[in-house]
Every structure is written in C-alpha cells, then in structure tokens.
Amino acid sequence: MNTSETQQRERIRTEIHASADAACRGLATEVAALIRERAAQGRMVVLGLATGSTPVRLYRELIRLHREEGLSFKNVVTFNLDEYHGLTREHPESYWRFMHEQLFDHIDMPAGNINVPDGTVPRAEVFARCFAYEEKIRAAGGLDLQILGIGRTGHIGFNEPGSGRDSRTRLVTLDALTRRDAARDFLGEANVPRHAITMGVGTILDAHQIVLLAWGEAKARVVAQAVEGDPVDSLPASFLQGHRDVRFMVDAAASSELTRVKHPWLVGPAEWTPALARRAVTWLSGEVKRPVLKLLDEHYGEHGMADLLTEQGPAYNLNIRIFNEVQHTITGWPGGKPNADDTYRPERASPHPKRVVVFSPEPSDEMLGMGGTLSRLVEQGHIVTVVYLTSGNLAVPDEEAVIAADLVLDFANGSADAAPAKKVRDALAAKQGDPRASDTPDTRRLKGLLRRGEARAALRLAGVPAAAERFLDLPFYENGRYRQFRAGPADITAVAALLDELKPHQIFATGEGQDPSGIGAVCFEVLRAALASHAATAWRADCRVWLYRTPDKSWAAHEIDMAVPLSPAQLARKVQVVYQHKSQRSQTPASGSGLHEAWQQAEAAARDLADTYDALGLAEYEAIEAFCRWNG
Ligand code: GLP
Question: Which residues line ligand 1 (CB under 6 A)?
C-alpha cells in the first residue's frame, strides 16, 4: 500500500502536498472526473461532505470548476456528516447554513439532493430520524466518496473519543476541546452547543472511498497518531485504518509529526544534511535525557543513528559541533550587535540602527510571541515599526463594547457627539439574547478601537514609542468571519505599499504553517505576496525575515535560528505587557488548573524554551523568545 520504505509505519496512505490549495485542486479534479463519468452513464454520484475550515478550499475549487469549466452537479446527491443539535438552519453557525454559503448556493445541485442532519429534531425523535438518515444513504446506493476533516481530539464528523468503530448516526455530547476550538465561531465557549448529531464511525466506514484532509501544524499530532498508532476508541480517526480505500491528504505542516518527516532516520537511511543532524542530535538529547555534550556513541547506536556517527562522528566531535551551532543561536542583540564580529551571530552587525518591522496579525500576537525582544530592539536603538494587520474586532466580547459605548455616551452628555455611540449601544441591545448575530459596522469599529487602545497601552509599557504603531485594518478581516477569511489584492497592496515606504532591514512575522484559513496564516500569505512583489528591489535583497510563534505552538530546538534570552525582570514586564490586552482575558474567572489566560501561556512558553536550552546543556536562562529565519 505504501510506496516507500519511509512510509513503513503508516497504516493509511498519506499524501503530503505542497499546500492546501494544491491538494484541493487535485482532489476537486478527481471529484469532477467522477461526476462527469457518472453523468455520461446517466447515474448519480453520492458524496459525503464535511464542514469546518478544512474543506472550504475544496468547495471553492468545485465552485470554480462549475463556473469556469461547466461542471454540473445535477447528478450529485450529498449527505453531510453532522450538525449541531439545537441550532436552526438559519443560525449563523449551523452546518446547513455553512454548506449553503460555502458550496450549495453557488452550484447547480438540485435542493432536493441536499441532506444535512436536522439540528432541531426534538430529543425524543432523534433516534428515529438518525435511523432514517442512514436508510436514506443506503437507498441512494451508499456514499461513493466521503470527504473528512479531523478535529484536534481525533474526531471525524463529531465522533468524539470513545466513539466505537461500529457507531452509527446518533446524538453525541461534544468534547471540551472541540467546544473550545469552536468558541471563536460562537463568540464564547458558553454559546457553543453541547450536543450534535453525527454520522457514526461505522456509517463513515461504509463509504466506498474516503479522503481525509488536514492542514496546519495544529493537526500534525493527531494525524500522526491516526496514521501510525493502533486503532483505538480514544482516537476515532484511527479506525479509518481498516478501510480498503482511504487516503489522507495533508500539507507539510500537518505532516510534521509523521515518522518519515520527524525522525526519518528511524525508517531508513537518512541523508544527513546539517539541518537533519541538528534535529537528530537535539532529539536524541531529549530521548536519553542528557545534555548534548554528554551523548555517547552507544546512545547514537541505540537510536538508529549509527550511520550519522559513521559519516560525521565520533560522538565527541558531533556533540561539540551541534552544541556550538545551538550556542550560536543565542543572542541578546536581536537586531545584530554593532561593531561586533558577526560571523557566528544570527543577525548581522550592520547597518546599525536597522529599520525593523514587526507584523502582528491581531493586536497582542506580537507581544505574546516576542514582547521581550520588541523592547530590546527599541532599547538597542533600532527604528521599529509595529504593524497591526487586522483590527481584531471579532474577538471583542459585547460586554466590553457596551462599557466603551456607555462611556462615550455619558461623556458626550446628550450632545450630538453621542449619536454614533448611541447607535452602537442600540445595535448591541438589539443583539441581546443572540450573541452570534453579526455586529454592525459601527460596532465593529468601536470594538476595533478598543483593541487599538489596548495595543497602545501594551506598546507604552513595552517602551515602544507611539510613532512606531501602524494599524492597517486589512479588508479581508473587516469583511470576513472566522474559518472563511480570504485575502485579496487590496490586502496585498496595503502591505506592499507599507513595505515600500519603510524599506525594512529586518522583518518579524508569524503565521507560517498555521491553519491556512486562520488569521495568522492568511496574514502571512498576504505578507509573502507583498514581499514577492518587491523581489527585485535592493532593500528586499538586504532584508531578513524572522518568524516568531505565539504560545500555542513553540519552536522545537532544531528549528531555532535565534534565541533571545529574557531576564526575570524582562519576563515580568512581558507578562504585564500582554496583560494590557484586557478584552482578551477570559470573561469568567478560571476554575481548576491549567493555563487559561494568554499572559500565563506566554510566560510558560518562554520559560519552556529556556528549559529546553538548559536540558541541551546550554546556559540556564529565565526565559527565551525564539525565531526561525525564513528564506521563502
Ligand atoms: C468540526 C466538524 C468536523 C471537522 C472539525 C475540524 O468538529 N464537525 O467535521 O473535521 O470540526 O474543523 P476544522 O476543519 O475547522 O479544523
């Protein structure tokens, strides 16, 4: 089944694609061929469809094929996997509505061919209706092709951990992690339904062909477990292993935990590039819990790395080489140390000062990922500009906007100046009881301004001068919603114009490798395109791009090209800086253990990186912020 020895641990055929778009183009072509073939025979095609951000690109490509290449869906019948229980079709987050907005409204499929489980069925009738759903699939001839995404719990459809291999269409209770992942869509976890109706694992396995899609690093772990682990109830996607025609299509980020990608030396002879050697040695240090300089030949031998020793050993030499490489990533001078020998420094010494641009997808990202480094860059005399790409207004709870609107109203004290605030106040009042009703443009503006204020408070505390801030409010965000963002030429032009004006020597950015429809990744794609438009310029040739990460996914040791240590005082300041983003704090006091708040997560991530370096045998710091050089 698998095509190379490096895939020997993979129990499901897994294709790694250059990008989600490339994968979806390929799959859409296959789907189109199936539809046309059946149409030529006068037969129907039965598709099982999924929701979530993952399949959106596939649907866009199918729409394009319909519009531009005449693909007709008249002979297509669809069955959707699942629906939230308790949501009407009209609810903005219902899967029925999602499917219409993302696909059905744009193609010529007859409305009668669409099947989505009904979320409004009274509890007492659920069983019978689920049974009828299954019957209908059977009567249609079964699912020819089932498209799947995967949740971070390893769920397919809404088959949460605990769902058996034989489970059928039924009502399920949603997992806490699943509800947290949906919290943004519903503007708060409390609004996320607790139950859903989903096809069962058994229903899915009855499909003739199954294709599971996964993009972004957040899916990497669960993809690897489903593909390489034993089939278990605790990870329902692993049951796909038993199917005769199943395939995973993933992008590079989602493949990153597969053995062939992460530890290629464990599945065959590896080509020991310097990067792979560093990855292997830092991994080995973690495995045997010894600092790099204390690794012995037998440790290498016992972990499938004997050939690395033969090529580049003995251990003593290799250890010193890797130790030095990691040592050289550490610098207190993120913008380069003026007048110093920079042969082994991550950033060049001159020019000094540098023009530095820090891109933040949403206000606070820059502080979460690199608040300490940002302060340092300013202190070390660089000309820093912080660019807020989106306003972040979608993430502001109504309660915060009410406080702000009331303040303006009271302050204006009945004068004409009160009119805009009154409008917002009325709009928010009208929304009451329906927290997911969309905000008016005025309300979004107010919410965006609120985040601007927080961003400024954070900048002040970080020591960044007021003149350094730029708020772009990119249109893709202002006109979009979660899971459906799509950048356009206006976004790219805005960033390209700013780059042309600032002509930076150094750029800090984030979002690469994330879920491609998330805000971070969309912002990164905009930056990538804007940079490409300047490819031939002198400043671009002299500009280095450094990637930072927000605390949800830190760098692994081997990925780090620059590590900026923070002292205890610098870490304390970073925490305070993040704390300024008041609207982003939990709306309810956290109960139980766990790092609920952003500042806690930022602190923990920076401390963890310091621990990682300490465990490798490098100096012991309080905290570290880390960066990877981007050569795209
Ligand atoms: C929801 C859906 C799943 C989907 C999952 C992942 O739970 N019920 O069908 O696969 O989300 O969502 P996303 O594609 O947005 O990552």
Answer: 50-54, 81-82, 149-151, 157-158, 178, 483
